[in-house]
């Protein structure tokens, strides 16, 4: 992989060309990982960032309190990222303790394994209904018709989003996660639409509360405000911006990562017919295969950006305070220094320690829900469609053109 001129015009090493990370991810990461533990690249916002590639460093830095998520710790001019209004930006992906601890505590009970297990049967019914709809056709884009539908239905049901308000959500999400260079205003328009959506939804739930997570969060917010709190400044308090931002994050993260976790897992199994047949014959093995599926082709290539609170050293390279650090889970998961034969998919090796759902205090809040949805989606699909196969040559499948996420553009299948 070649270095490029430092187009950003900042001091420091030349930037590594990131085009190969889009075109041929894992070989490009292997080359970087072999060359060194950290590299200077053009980040997801186009500005210079430090990419960490080796498993031990990535795992350690996920839990290192010297790396902050709050953008206020970014050096001036170092980071732009999404241009979110304050009403959506007061979320867990931009928070450090103690605010992170306070806000996370208010919602974590909704995603405990016990509560999630109660949702398994409703999720199974949704999966069966989606498969009922496509079964007569004998073929479908599984990403659009199944993997892309199940998570949005589940998370919207959990939050209490009415059916009529769900139709535009995927377009908004795609505009934010994978911006289209041909439509430079699309992301900004999506942010505006989502802000209006959440503001109106919260107002409706406040007027007519129901038995759902968003109504519960509104009740917590309003009860505290009535006691003179609610400004987010103390223990157990939730500001109005934090309430809106939390709803935004739950819906966006609960949809985006799970869609690609399901689709990527289906593709992995189609690429490995023996494993596919084994899980079809014994669906109980799907739960055990989850960790290997998430490691081998996880939905996120990078962790959320971080900013050192002080100069830190990684593998002999000093990263100045305030500069952007990107932790590559995709590279860590293929690191032969930690995983035996990392480029092979083998659910029987019992390889533990994947980072697909994060690590440390920012470990994915909805991990139990994502795991249950993927297990349920795969079990229903393999049972219903025993002849499942790709409907296009494998080389025609495309991945979304971003270094941030690992997601297919489409997944045409037949049965």
Q: Could you walk me through the main structural features you see in this protein, from its secondary elements to its overall organization?
A:
The chain is mainly alpha-helical. Helix content is 47%, strand content 8%. The protein is built from 17 helices and 12 strands. The strands form 5 sheets. It has a 3-stranded mixed β-sheet, covered by helices on one side. Strands 6-12-11 form a 3-stranded antiparallel β-sheet. A two-stranded antiparallel sheet has the order 1-2. Strand 3 (38-42) and strand 4 form a beta hairpin. Helix 7 (120-134) crosses helix 17 (367-384) and helix 13 runs parallel beside helix 17 (367-384). The longest helix is centred in the middle third of the chain and has 32 residues, at 240-271. The model is unreliable at 3-10 and 226-230 (pLDDT under 50). Belongs to the cytochrome P450 family. This is Cytochrome P450.
Q: Report the biggest beta sheet as strand number plus sense, adding barrel if it closes.
A: 3 strands, mixed
The run of helices and strands is EEHHEEHEHHHHEHHHHHHHHEEEEHHEE
How would you classify the quaternary structure?
A: single chain
Q: How do the strands line up in the largest sheet?
A: 3-4-10
% residues in beta strands: 5-15%
| Proportion of residues in helical segments | 40-55%
Rounded average pLDDT: 89
Uncertain parts: 3-10, 226-230
How far is the N terminus from the C terminus?
A: 40 Å
The general outline is globular
Overall SS class: mainly alpha
Number of helices: 17
Query: Rg, please?
Result: 21 Å
| Total DSSP E strands | 12
């Amino acid at each position: 992989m070649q270095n490029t001129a430092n187009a950003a015009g900042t001091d420091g090493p030349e930037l590594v060309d990131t085009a190969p990370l889009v075109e041929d991810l894992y070989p490009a990461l292997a080359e970087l990982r072999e060359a060194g533990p950290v590299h200077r690249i053009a980040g997801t916002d186009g500005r210079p960032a430090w990419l960490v590639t080796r498993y031990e460093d990535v795992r350690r830095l996920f839990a290192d309190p010297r790396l902050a998520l709050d953008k206020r710790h970014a050096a001036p001019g170092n980071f732009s990222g999404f241009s979110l209004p304050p009403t959506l930006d007061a979320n867990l992906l931009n928070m450090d303790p103690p605010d992170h601890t306070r806000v996370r505590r208010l919602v974590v009970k909704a995603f405990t394994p016990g509560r999630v297990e109660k949702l398994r049967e409703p999720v199974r019914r949704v999966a069966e209904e989606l498969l009922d709809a496509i079964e007569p056709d004998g073929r479908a884009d599984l990403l659009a018709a199944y993997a892309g539908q199940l998570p949005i239905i589940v998370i919207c049901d959990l939050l209490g989003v009415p059916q009529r308000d769900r139709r535009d959500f995927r377009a908004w999400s795609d505009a934010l996660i994978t911006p289209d260079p041909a439509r430079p205003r699309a992301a900004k328009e999506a942010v505006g639409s989502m802000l209006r959506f959440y503001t109106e939804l919260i107002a409706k739930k406040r007027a007519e509360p129901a038995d759902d997570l968003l109504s519960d969060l509104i009740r917590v917010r309003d009860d505290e405000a009535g006691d003179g709190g609610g400004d987010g400044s103390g223990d157990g308090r939730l500001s109005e911006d934090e309430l809106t931002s939390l709803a935004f994050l739950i819906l966006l993260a609960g949809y985006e990562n799970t869609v690609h976790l399901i689709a990527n897992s289906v593709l992995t199994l189609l690429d490995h017919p023996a494993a596919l047949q084994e899980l079809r014959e014994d669906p109980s093995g799907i739960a055990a295969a989850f960790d290997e599926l998430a490691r081998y082709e996880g939905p996120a290539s990078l962790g959320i950006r971080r900013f050192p609170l002080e100069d830190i050293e990684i593998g002999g390279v000093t990263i100045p305070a305030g500069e952007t650090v990107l932790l590559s889970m995709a590279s860590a998961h293929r690191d032969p220094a930690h995983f035996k034969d990392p480029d092979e998919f083998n659910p029987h090796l019992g390889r533990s320690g994947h980072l697909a759902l994060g690590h440390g205090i920012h470990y994915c809040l909805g991990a139990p829900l994502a795991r249950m949805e993927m297990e349920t989606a795969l079990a229903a699909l393999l049972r219903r469609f025993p002849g499942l196969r790709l409907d296009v040559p494998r080389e025609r499948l495309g991945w979304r053109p971003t270094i941030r996420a690992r997601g297919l553009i489409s997944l045409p299948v037949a049965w």
